[in-house]
Amino acid sequence: xxxxxxxxxxxxxxxxxxxxxxxxxxxxxxxxxxxxxxxxxxxxxxxxxxxxxxxxxxxxxxxxxxxxxxxxxxxxxxxxxxxxxxxxxxxxxxxxxxxxxxxxxxxxxxxxxxxxxxxxxxxxxxxxxxxxxxxxxxxxxxxxxxxxxxxxxxxxxxxxxxxxxxxxxxxxxxxxxxxxxxxxxxxxxxxxxxxxxxxxxxxxxxxxxxxxxxxxxxxxxxxxxxxxxxxxxxxxxxxxxxxxxxxxxxxxxxxxxxxxxxxxxxxxxxxxxxxxxxxxxxxxxxxxxxxxxxxxxxxxxxxxxxxxxxxxxxxxxxxxxxxxxxxxxxxxxxxxxxxxxxxxxxxxxxxxxx
Length: 354
Ligand SMILES: [Fe+2]
Hints:
CATH architecture: Sandwich
CATH topology: Jelly Rolls
Helix content: 25-40%
Distance between the termini: 37 Å
Bound molecules: fe (ii) ion
Order of helices and strands: HEEEHHEEHHHEEHEEEEEEEEEHH
Largest sheet: 8 strands, antiparallel
Radius of gyration: 22 Å
Number of helices: 9
């Protein structure tokens, strides 16, 4: 399969790939995952046992994609049609690229959907997962600075009294994610970077810092259930992360997905189609299973389980109401405005615990 991989643009280049040179994702060549990293469990961070869909809270950074894979992914996000048509910004994050993978990033799309990648993410997350939808493949958070700006940050950060009020602001403020799990992949060279950790709030309200990944490495976080913020990275000309969101593969695991943090920064036509289709699919599977169980009970001569069926109907009604609540009329969505959590930000420069 590797002989299908053609020439790729230079690392960090903005060159676009000619159609005939589209590289093919090859897990043997492009996946570099080796060992299971250290993992903090939900219990480790003081969460109640019924919170979340898995015992795993967050992983340490681990190598996931090769440098060549990162180079190809970068070439896909720098295509003019991606920056022109898929750029979003909000009060939480200044520059993002969203929903481009389906039409403009065949390599990135194949990389995240490949069964080998899905198996790695599922293994580390402690539950069988699949990408949340095509729309949420490799959402990009962008932070690009001039060389002088990056260098001066490092000098200024050593003199806190002279730092501007914005220097300690997180790159993304306190929030819980809309989706059960995220895998955050670092796309930039972090050699001179200071900071860039993820801060988590534990069950008791303490703040833990999780070390940020280096280029080609990733972390996995059960972000729907854990309050977190991405801390600013100083000293680097750019910090580009690709965030892919995940949900349980099984239709019989709870789906607490909301669209709160993504609705204002999305093509709602795409987002709503993806969301409603898989929610209906989950319901379809649950209804079919309930019907089969009921028929089997009857065939076995057992009494109708009134209480059990009413509980199932109540759960199904709540599931439908949840879907309905998340579908805010498109003309009522305030673009770029995401509700924030009023907690003190974490300063750059503390020690990471994980
Ligand atoms: Fe997040």
